[in-house]
Amino acid sequence: MYSEKAPLSAAMKVFLWGVFCILLAVTAFSYFSLFGFGADREEFYIVAFVFVVYSIAMQGILKLKYSVSSEGVLVSYPPLKYRIPFSEIESVELEPGLGVYMGWGLRVHGRTLVFASSHDTGVRIRKNNGYFRSVILVSSNPERLKSQIESMMGSMANTEKRS
Hints:
- The protein is an alpha+beta fold.
- It has a single domain (1-163), classed as PH-domain like (Roll).
- Helices cover 40% and strands 29% of the residues.
- The chain has helices at residues 10-31, 41-62, 142-162; strands at 2-5, 65-69, 72-77, 80-84, 89-95, 105-109, 112-116, 122-127, 134-138.
- The strands form two sheets. The protein has a five-stranded mixed beta sheet.
- The longest helix is centred in the first third of the chain and has 22 residues, at 10-31.
- It is elongated and about 65 Å long.
């Protein structure tokens, strides 16, 4: 079994925590009606909703993890998990660095699902069924992730031939 935590630079972690602290402060100001915030209760609910959604997304980016096991490829993006069985994988290839417009986190581009914690090279997994026909995993070591997936696919194919 192979497992890796998605890459996230120190600068990106500082940025994420900085935005978190700012949103927390704005939420507190709104709740306690400080400095002109929170005059309207709807404002507080909107700010609190943004804070909660951001907190969930930040947790996902900070804990993004890829695993390759005999069951397939598992992507853990808390609170979500996405599994790709080897039987659904058509091909695995390296994807050059993602454009800045792609953003970070979980992204949907047409029928492509992207798990990105940086704009580095990723691994594109093409699937033969399911709604998402392509999944991109941005990895700190894309060559190793790709080779692990291919080697597990090969060993699963050999096991099926023996049966």
